[in-house]
Design brief:
Layout lengths: L1 H43 L4 E5 L2 E6 L8 H17 L8 E6 L2 E6 L2 E6 L1 H7 L3 H58 L2 H10 L9 H32 L3 H58 L12 H20 L9 H17 L1 H16 L7 E4 L2 E8 L3 E5 L5 E5 H6 L2 E3 H7 L2 E10 L4 H13 L13 E7 L3 E10 L5 H19 L22 H4 L15 H17 L1
Antiparallel strand pairs: 1-2, 3-4, 4-5, 6-7, 6-10, 7-8, 8-9, 11-13, 12-13
Helix pairs in contact: 4-6, 6-7, 7-8, 13-14
Length: 576
């Protein structure tokens, strides 16, 4: 038993010694491998990369950091040193070092200039503190030498800018002063200039006021130019120095950023603009085809069953309006800012204003459309609307213009025509002839047969009235009043445009016939103090006296000539 225990103890001691020996061997092996790796890395990275700024070596790079190669590290350190040079002043106390994992960082304030590790110290065969001091010393030496010269160059540049500003200020002042003197001395220059360009015919008495206005404009232009010069020169000088560069950049951005944003907006809007241009081109081609089609319908070259020529123009206008509305719905989403809430709010507000303010316009437009296809009258027809009588000279969707016999143009809204009553004399004259009538009152002492005969003879003597079978002139006895009988003569005519002239001629012939027959027209109202000897009939010799004319040899103008002359004048007005 004692022997067994001794064997177990010896075995445990043996295994413990072997385990400790194997652990020592493994640590030695790891140390050996690390040393071999460092030696191999030193062999592989035996080159030294200098950090060169302005053709001068600031310090050297001896090892890689992270994934960047040594050449990339050298370029990165070069950019950092240049950033440090841009600062106008160098404070030695701000240059410090910090430990970061396996590396030591060389920093100036918040800017990291470079970093190094164990490989650099091994290559330089120095301690970390010695390498840190060496890096700091090289950076300080370089910055003291270069930064002073750089600051001096910046000062010279600022002085050049100041001199340039003074020169430009004096030049601008001289130019505007010379311009004002030139305008004051040559006051006829503006007068001649406006007549040369034919933009505005300046009057002679307005020259002084125009010269004063131009002088004021030149003064404000001078102030504006100097202000812009100061605004651009000041940021240019501020951007020279490091500590004022941000202020200069901000001042420049206040002026340039809106233009840059506008340019970017234009570039971004180009695809939509191209779509709009293509859409408008296609739309214009289609509109020309529509216009051609309806013009041919109007001229009668194209005929559609049940479609009148006078419908061509209004129908074409309606279709064009619908096409323009369709085009607007296509182009509206492509307009700049169409998606913004402000744009939508403004369009809704405008639409509300238009809808509230155009109630009568819409009513007239709808009435015009209805009247177009109802065809109550056309241009050239003689119509009567309420108390207005005349010839239609213009008709559109909103209004109708009528020329009265007194040559006055009356504008009538279409809604009033549609809601009221209108009479078309031209249509009646063309279809079944128009009846011209005139009413007179004769006393009971005159036989009705005599009155009938005289009225029929007066109508027969009137030119423009129709005398044919089925359309004979007739007389009606309208009423039997207290003191007289009302007689109405009715005659047919096909000349609605000469209605007033023919009616006037009829009245003249009635007077002529009754005077010849010795029949007095004493009603409806006639009052005179009489002794019973004289009668109210003009002397026959006076009635047969010719009308006064321009010359003694000229004859009175015949009624036919009057009618033809009046018709020619109306045709000329219609064509105009």
């Amino acid at each position: 038993m004692t022997r067994f225990i001794c064997i177990v103890i010896i075995s445990v001691i043996y295994y413990a010694v072997n385990a400790q020996k194997s652990e020592t061997d493994s640590l030695s092996e790891l140390h050996y491998k690390r040393t071999v790796y460092l030696i191999d890395s030193l062999k592989n990275e035996h080159r030294v990369y200098p950090v060169i700024v302005n053709n001068d070596t600031v310090f050297n790079i001896y090892e890689k950091v992270s994934s960047n190669s040594m050449s990339e590290r050298a370029l990165l350190c070069q950019q950092r040193v240049k950033q440090l040079l841009e600062r106008d002043f160098f404070y030695r106390d701000s240059l410090k070092h910090e430990d970061s994992l396996d590396f030591i960082l060389i920093k100036y304030a918040d800017l990291t200039i470079t970093e190094f590790g164990a490989i650099t110290t091994q290559k330089l065969r120095s301690s970390n503190s010695q390498v840190t001091k060496a890096y700091k010393r090289k950076i300080i030496t370089y910055l003291k030498k270069e930064q002073a010269q750089l600051l001096l160059n910046k000062t010279y540049k600022a002085l050049i800018y100041i001199g340039l500003f003074i020169v430009l200020f004096i030049t601008i002042r001289f130019i505007f002063s010379f311009l004002r003197k030139l305008i004051a001395k040559n006051d006829n220059l503006i007068y001649r200039f406006t007549h040369l360009l034919k933009i505005y015919q300046l009057k002679e008495e307005d020259k002084e006021r125009a010269v004063n206005t131009v002088l004021k404009i030149s003064k404000w232009l001078h102030i504006l130019t100097v202000g812009l010069l100061i605004y651009f020169m000041l940021p240019a000088m501020l951007r020279i120095f490091y500590y004022t560069k941000s202020v200069g950049d901000k001042l420049i951005s206040y002026f340039l950023n809106p233009f840059i944003e506008f340019l970017h907006s234009i570039i971004a809007y180009l695809p939509s603009l191209i779509k709009i241009i293509i859409t408008i081109i296609i739309f214009r081609i289609f509109m020309k085809l529509v216009s051609f089609f309806f013009n041919e319908l109007k001229d009668g070259n194209i005929k559609l069953s049940g479609f009148y020529k006078e419908w061509a123009t209004p129908t074409g206008n309606i279709i064009k309006f619908l096409l323009y509305a369709f085009l607007l719905t296509i182009l509206f989403p492509l307009l700049p800012g169409a998606d913004s809430q402000t744009f939508k709010g403004v369009t809704v507000f405008l639409g509300l204003l238009i809808s509230l303010g155009s109630t009568s316009v819409i009513a007239n437009g709808l009435s015009g459309i209805i009247m177009t296809y109802m065809r109550p009258f056309k241009i050239g027809d003689r119509i009567e609307v309420d108390t207005v009588t005349g010839i239609v000279v213009q008709k559109n969707l909103l209004i109708t213009r009528v020329r009265t016999p007194k040559n006055v143009i009356v504008t009538i809204p279409n809604s009033k025509i549609l809601s009221g009553h209108s009479q078309n004399y031209t249509t009646a004259a063309e279809r079944s002839n128009l009846i011209i009538h005139s009413t007179i009152t004769i006393g009971y002492d005159v036989d009705w047969r005599t009155v009938h005969q005289l009225l029929l003879q007066a109508a027969k003597n009137t030119d423009g009235l129709i005398e044919q079978i089925g359309k004979e002139t007739f007389v009606l006895q309208k009423s039997l009043d207290d003191y007289y009988v009302a007689y109405e003569v009715n005659a047919y005519t096909a000349q609605a445009d000469k209605y007033i002239i023919i009616q006037s001629e009829l009245h003249k012939n009635i007077l002529e016939e009754f005077n010849k027959a010795g029949v007095e027209i004493m009603s409806p109202h006639y009052r005179a103090n009489r002794d019973g000897e004289a009668i109210a009939i003009p002397d026959k010799s006076q009635s047969e006296t010719p009308l006064p004319t321009a010359g003694n040899d000229e004859k009175p103008m015949d009624i036919n000539e009057k009618i033809n002359k009046k018709a020619e004048e109306q045709n000329k007005d219609k064509e105009a």
